[in-house]
Amino acid sequence: MDDPTSHTERTLPDYYRSTGISQLQHAIKDFDNVANFRAFERHVASPISQNFMIDFGDEEAWCGFDLDASAIKSLLETPVSFGSSNGRRI
Q1: Could you tell me the residue range of the domain that residue 66 belongs to?
Q2: What are phi and psi of 82, to 5 degrees?
Q3: Is the pTM of this model over 0.85?
Q4: Is residue 52 part of a domain?
Q5: Tens-digit pLDDT profile for the chain (90 aa)?
């Protein structure tokens, strides 16, 4: 991950918008943005967090928490298609 203190938030890739799932368009955030990273740290430690996903590559990473079944299904059915993606974890 790049130094999150020197990073402004990227625009959500078309990849997520193209799924047609509005939750993904609102829940998926730039992992390398310091404010988002701090929020993700809080979500990870929260006993009420139910799930999370992260797409990561050499140049960027995207993360979302508490996705519903339709959002997760859409992610599983859609190949990662940004940058030089290395993986997805749900």
Answers
A1: 16-89
A2: -125, 145
A3: no
A4: yes
A5: 455 445 677 888 888 888 889 999 899 999 999 999 999 999 999 999 999 999 888 888 999 999 999 999 988 887 766 665 567 776
Number of domains in the chain: 1
DSSP 8-state class, residue 25: H
Please indicate, yes or no, if residue 77 is contained in any of the structural domains: yes
* CA neighbor of 30 nearest in space, from 15, 18, 13: 13
Question: Are 30 and 10 spatial neighbours (Cβ–Cβ below 8 Å)?
Answer: yes
Q: Quick check: is 32 in a domain?
A: yes
DSSP string of 27-85? H-EETTSHHHHHHHHHHHH-TT---EEEEEESS-EEEEES--HHHHHHHHHS---STTE
Whether 4 is covered by a domain: the verdict is: no
Measured CA angle at 58 (ends 56, 62), to 5 deg: 25
